[in-house]
Amino acid sequence: MQYEEIIEIDPRDIIIGENIRTDVVLDDEFVDSIREHGVLSPVVTYRVADGENKGRVELVWGQRRTLGAIKAERATVPALVAKSKDEALKAAKIDRIVKQIVENDQRAGVSESDRAAAYEQLSILGLSATAIAKKVSAKRARVKTALDVRANETASLALTDHALTLDQAAVIAEFSDDAEAVARLVEAAHDGGFDHAAQRERDDRAEQEVIDAKRAELAEQGTTVLDREAQHHPEAADLRTLADAEGNDLTEDSHAECPGHAAVILPGWGGNVRVVWLCTDWRAHGHRDRHGRVTGPMTDEQKEERRQLIATNKAWDSAEQVRRAWLRTFLARKSAPKDAAQYVARTVLAAHRTVGSAIGDNNQLLAELLGHDKPTSWDDSPLLEAADKATPARAQMLTLGMVLAGIESSLTRHSWRNPTREAADYLTALTGWGYELADVERIITEHGTD
Fold first, then answer.
1. Is the pLDDT of residue 364 over 80?
2. What is the distance between the alpha carbons of residues 207 and 10, in angstroms, rounded to a whole number?
3. Under a CB-based contact definition with an 8 Å cutoff, are residues 96 and 135 in contact?
4. What is the per-residue pLDDT for 106?
5. Could you check whether 3-85 and 95-193 share the same CATH topology?
6. Where is 261: in which H helix or E strand?
7. Phi-psi region for residue 73, left (φ > 0), alpha (ψ -120 to 50) or beta?
8. Which of 19, 16, 55, 11 is nearest to 35 (CA)?
9. How many CB atoms lie within 10 A of CB 109?
């Protein structure tokens, strides 16, 4: 907001405009405070441009402080003099909004929805996210998130209607073009496990984008691309199991001219996809099983078992990302939790091979979680420098991190299928320190101690 000047002025010389409220209450406590300390927050004014009061200062915001100063017989009050009446009115509106936010925070607090709406009003009045953050003593990133949420209709409505947190609403904004994803996320916000649900949605979207890109690439080459269920059709078979009539193994190239030539795109490891090449009716097209086996379709029970396996593996991958993101924040602490020493002692004794294996690998994962470059050797490690500079409390945290990263690095997709006591103790400890388990991780904590 632009001001022409900031002045000290006799409150009696300020013009109280006709549209200023007349029901001002000047209680003794308020007047006594001004008498002792003066007016601490400047009133908002502008300089009259014409007429009989030309050149004088007229009040726009701060009537109670001005009248209180007159009653307290203060010689001057601080005043912001705007360049014009419009600028002064805008400044007054900004001050009212900021004051409301601050006062609500000091009392019962302001809802996330109301806070975001107030930030938006300030933005409309011309304040940048940085200026808003400074005025309301908030972090700029927080203000920016609120403004982004208000700019997205779906996220803004979800914030208001479902009492979400600002961070949750920001995630809703990511998926505002997918009503089903939004519904799942809102449900997770109410039922628990929101971070895990959000990561699964991100992973599923990223996976589908890769699959769609591969599908488009194959379609451009003239390849028939079928949905993944096609591989289980009674007449279909993977080319890797087939031979032609003369007994020659079929390949993608040798089978390309067959009318039954098709592909199925499946998700792979690390965000990649794999293509399974099929013949949609291998018997009708004169092929045979290359090993002489009698092949047949999967049963419904086998199909459901496979679907569950794939879904749970994907859930594990998503949970791993959420868990490691949580670990990065947790390991930034200056000091360890009170019960960390017991966990470290027990784990080093009971799981020394697992922890030792990670140490032997130069604590690669710990370095990554702490934001360092991965060490190339034990004597050339950024972790050594971090340890040398650490306070005693931070050094304990690094020791805890070394143990946690050791166990974390040993967990894979097989961990939920074969739960161990060591994995269960690890996840239970994280839960005690504030981590929220995903359903797939609960399989380990519920069965790993059997």
1. yes
2. 69
3. no
4. 46
5. no
6. strand 261-267
7. left
8. 11
9. 10
| DSSP track, 208-243 | HHHHHHHHHHHHHTT--EE-GGGGGSTT-EEGGGEE
Round to whole Å and give the CA distance between 59 and 41: 14
- Residue 319 in contact with residue 193, Cβ under 8 Å? no
Supply the mean pLDDT for the chain: 87
pLDDT confidence tier of residue 110, bands split at 50, 70 and 90:
low
Residue 154 has pLDDT above 60, yes or no: yes
Contact (CB, 8 A) for 55 and 48? yes
Whole-Å CA distances, 287 to 235, 246, 253:
11, 9, 15
Q: For domain 3-85, which architecture applies?
A: Alpha-Beta Complex (3.90)
pTM (2 d.p.): 0.69
Does the structure show a pLDDT above 80 at 351? yes
> Residues of the chain with pLDDT > 70: what percent?
92
Structure-token match 């079928």, residue found: 226
CA of 73: how far to CAs of 68, 76, 77, 135, 334, in Å?
A: 8, 9, 11, 30, 52
Look at residue 256 and give its three-state secondary structure.
coil
Strand order in the sheet with 225-226: 225-226, 261-267, 273-279, 237-238
Q: Of 440, 361, 343, 450, whose CA–CA distance to 399 is shortest?
A: 343
**Quick check: 132 and 118 in contact, CB under 8 A?**
no
**The two three-digit tokens of residue 326, written as one number:** 């949580």
Give DSSP secondary structure letters for 338-391: TTHHHHHHHHHHHSHHHHHHHHHTTTHHHHHHTTPPPPSSTTS-HHHHHHHH--
The model's confidence at residue 94, banded by pLDDT at 50, 70 and 90, is confident
Highest mean pLDDT among 90-104, 317-331, 357-371: 317-331
Instruction: Give me the CATH code for the 95-193 domain, please.
Output: 1.10.10.2830
Task: Tell me how far apart the terminal alpha carbons of the chain are, to the nearest angstrom.
Answer: 66
Where do the structural domains in the chain lie, given as residue ranges? 3-85, 95-193, 223-297, 307-447
Sequence-ordered list of residues with C-beta below 8 angstroms from that of 7, at least 6 positions apart, any chain: 57, 78, 79, 81
